[in-house]
Amino acid sequence: RGMPSAVRPQAPPDGGWGWVVVGALFVVSALVFGVIRSFGVFFVEFVDYFDERAGTVSWITSIGVSVQQLASPVATALCNAYGPRLVVMVGGLLSGLGMILASLSTTLVHLYLSVGIVSGMGWAMVFTPTVASVMQYFERRRSLAMALGFTGVGLSSFAFSPLFQLLVERYTWRGGLLILGGLCLNMVACGALIRPLRLREEGGEGGPERRASLPGGCLSQARAYLELSLLRHRPFLCYSLAVTLFNAGYFVPYVHLVAHSRQVGFSEYQAAFVVSATGVTDLVGRVVSGWVSDLGRLRLPHILALWTGLTGLSMAAIPLGTTYPALLTISLLYGFCAGAMTPVVFSVVPEIVGMERLFGALGLLQMIESVGGLLGPPLSGFLKDVTGSYVISFLVAGGFLLAGTLIMGTLPQFFSCANPPSQGPEPGSQANGTAHGKTEPAV
Hints:
Layout: H1 18-38, H2 40-50, H3 54-57, H4 59-70, H5 72-82, H6 84-102, H7 108-137, H8 142-184, H9 186-192, H10 208-212, H11 217-226, H12 234-250, H13 252-263, H14 268-293, H15 300-316, H16 324-347, H17 349-353, H18 358-387, H19 391-408
């Protein structure tokens, strides 16, 4: 009663203002992962300026990525408590502030704290809440909306590297970081574009009102905001394990494909072109995947299993590219499939836990899958050191994705061709750690 019309329970509008939120996701994904992928321009400058080893300097981005993923549950809990608009705006402010403070750094420790901790926390508060907001606005066109939003990563990866190099040449790395901080502040405006949207849930209403009424004081409410009961939800844990394995192999070609191309005898420019061409097919794959998913011919888990299986096979086939046309063809196939699987990974989550627990589920999923992202590339490098080539590295990386695809087959009703009749747990059934009715929700 008395609830403003903007936040009355409603069905996903599948358009309207949702496309503005997709635009916000485009900018956010570009300013988070585009910056992370292109930060190597500043990496070279840091090595020379601070006269430190490359391994020591590389901790700057490693800390930032780790904080972005590990702090995602905290960000989504804040969304459950205060709404995504405020959280994303604060996250955008922290992202820009970290880069601005980094421009004043005199030691590497300052960069660890500013870029790694401050900006990393800002990235966590921006990315996952924006993704969840887009998913709330769409149901029938959800995968296409996610794919269009994520195209910002591919486009910014092309544009930011030469832009950052130009900034460093004209204004040194300090001036470049200062300007980059100003660019990151645009995410504050992206957060302001997120309008409150409260969806109808089957079996009753959920959301902040239900969580606020939980007994047990602050501790119980904190557990509810974090959605910690999902850690006892078998389908969610099964899916998290599969995504963790995906993450362990997904980044290996981005890290080692250039080095492998050089090792088998191709020139620097040929190796660089392989990676650039892979980025183009990655972008195309995202859009095609969103369009195919929204046709409704196949269930999203089946589509994801198809793309992850093809990604794993193409990754394992990279060592077969002994000639340049063969390597380029396999790499293009890998880029297309890897890009196609990315939006579907997020789109499957509501089918696992339901829309009501989406924010908490995405936060926990990001935290759990970070283990794969942190261990995959170092393991690949270790295998190269032991064997002397990247053949085993790519085979193992492809095996991770194939293993994750097999684990997805253990999801309840995975082999059913029809969508399940209900999604996620009943509101109130597990939010406070107790079960009423069904003990394991359908998938």
